[in-house]
Amino acid sequence: MDAISGQPMRIITIANQKGGVGKTTTAINLATALAAVGKRTLLIDLDPQGNASTGLGIEKDDRDVSSYDVLMEAASISEAATATAVPSLSIIPSTLDLLGLEMEISGAPGRAYRLRDALHFHQVDTPLFDFVLIDCPPSLNLLTINAMAAADSILVPLQCEFFALEGLSQLLQTVEQVRDTLNPALALHGIVLTMYDGRNNLAAQVVRDVRSYMGEHVYDTIIPRNVRVSEAPSFGKPVVLYDMKCPGSQAYIRLASEIIQRERRLVAA
Ligand code: ADP
Ligand code: MG
């Protein structure tokens, strides 16, 4: 239990095996928007590319303790969590070391539970966070499996494009496998449609298809394609801080409040 609010720490994994669908952008901006309304938030960067770390202004030289160290059982969550420029938001940065992790722990028993165990220990010890968001690499490898095994729920960014649903069914199969083997409690938190372009008829059709196929799992909020969103990372800032008024920022702020509402319903149920 969370020491201050009495609510349990919520762990949400942001995953999709496709690259470029908005996982990292969603992780950074959702984390920032949650922190902005006072939720103590931790973002764990599990992608060796480290885009979430860069996007939050953590320079390569400042990644002394990383998610690799946590997965190697060389550092605790508290030791690895680094403050960001956003109040109430910490990050566990990633480094390229993560590329070798799968080989290094391939024979180790419990290798899929490294992150779960670290977070569990943290929760029992001194929970400092209301929300933990995990940014996954674009594949269904051991890193993503660790993130799914550790999470209460999974959040799937889906780009409004033709093959969106095809990739989704493969991902949902993996979620089902993780439920059967590693984490029976893993829930689908929701699907967020990203990079929506209202001038494109196909995008509108994809929205209708995804909503009719996945129903209530799809968040009401749709993230529009917005150039300010793509500019922000080069300034090491979430777009929510870089330009709070732009449509992309406003959408991520709405998504954060939708997520808080869903969490309230889950806790009350
Ligand atoms: P992933 O983590 O799934 O690979 P990213 O979040 O890195 O995807 O997004 C891929 C690219 O698309 C990045 O260059 C990012 O800046 C850009 N992007 C993401 N969301 C938007 C958006 N809503 N509008 C415009 N560009 C976006
Ligand atoms: Mg990414």
Automatic annotation (TrEMBL):
- Which region is the signal sequence? none
Official protein name in the record = Chromosome partitioning protein ParA
InterPro entries under this entry?
A: AAA_dom, DNA_Partitioning_ATPase, P-loop_NTPase
User: Which parts of the sequence belong to the AAA domain?
Assistant: 9-187
State the protein's purpose. Involved in chromosome partition. Localize to both poles of the predivisional cell following completion of DNA replication.
Q: Entry's SUPFAM superfamilies?
A: P-loop containing nucleoside triphosphate hydrolases
Question: Which CDD domains does this one have?
Answer: ParAB_family (cd02042)
Mention any Pfam family matching this sequence.
Answer: AAA_31
Q: Species name for this entry? A: Aurantimonas marianensis
